[in-house]
Amino acid sequence: MGEDFAGRAGLVTGAGSGIGRAAAVKFASEGAKVVIADVDTDGSEATKAMIDQLGGEALCVCTDVTRAADVEALVERTVAAYGRLDFAFNNAGIAGDIVPLIDYSEELWDRVIGVNLKGVWLCMKYEIRQMLSQTPGGGAIVNTASVMGLISSASNPVAYTASKHGVIGITKNAALGYAGSGIRVNAVCPGYIMTPLVEGILERHPERKAQILADHPVGRLGVPEEISEAAVWLCSDAASFVNGTAMTVDGGYVAH
Ligand SMILES: NC(=O)c1ccc[n+]([C@@H]2O[C@H](COP(=O)([O-])OP(=O)(O)OC[C@H]3O[C@@H](n4cnc5c(N)ncnc54)[C@H](O)[C@@H]3O)[C@@H](O)[C@H]2O)c1
Description:
single chain; Rossmann fold; 46% helix; binds nicotinamide-adenine-dinucleotide
């Protein structure tokens, strides 16, 4: 175990699976106390078991990031258990069905925007309130956007593209609004990463696999640990001058 986050506490949303799970484990392995926030309680418990096995410290708080009361309670539970909130990785997200823009339903639009964009705003709202009120103040926040927050593709679902562009926008808004209070806010923009989210897309649309691979100049998809490395670094003191950025971790996807 490393010591970079010794004595620090934070939360990771969507930590019951994929990128969030890898990040929760990485934060804990660096010495942090980690709150695992997800709607999936079984997935959360599995992440906690991985952290327990490392000898780390973690707590599960069942949270739906689309509900303000849940998010407020998540931050309260984190502070009640660990005393403060030093970092947060707002990562919970859904792909939504791959449907052309002209057939996209209002219900699906509201669901994808609700989790991916409103959820990140709600998390920042309560996290930043806490970071402003604690002594010493400050903290670091990372939001999960996507390469689809910087560019789009004809087949990418319209609400997903909108939500991830929005995440980068509200990341900049928060970074500018609270830099003077010692709070850094950044986004990470993954390419395609092998997680249940992408496995589901490839299962439903096997015809898309060759193009998805071709879109990554490195010739492969990423793994969750390659994103969690970036998220943990952005939350660490090593990134003390990094603020308001949208960092691609994408094997070169947006470079061409
Ligand atoms: N996998 C990729 O290729 C990829 C690429 C770019 C961006 N992302 C983003 O990374 C993030 C994590 O995705 P992943 O690939 O690890 O997916 P995943 O499906 O493996 O994990 C997502 C987790 O979020 C949780 N979640 C869903 N809705 C929630 C809600 N309302 N409240 C709380 N938790 C909720 C799920 O239960 C799940 O555990 C998402 O924001 C996704 O959009 C993923």
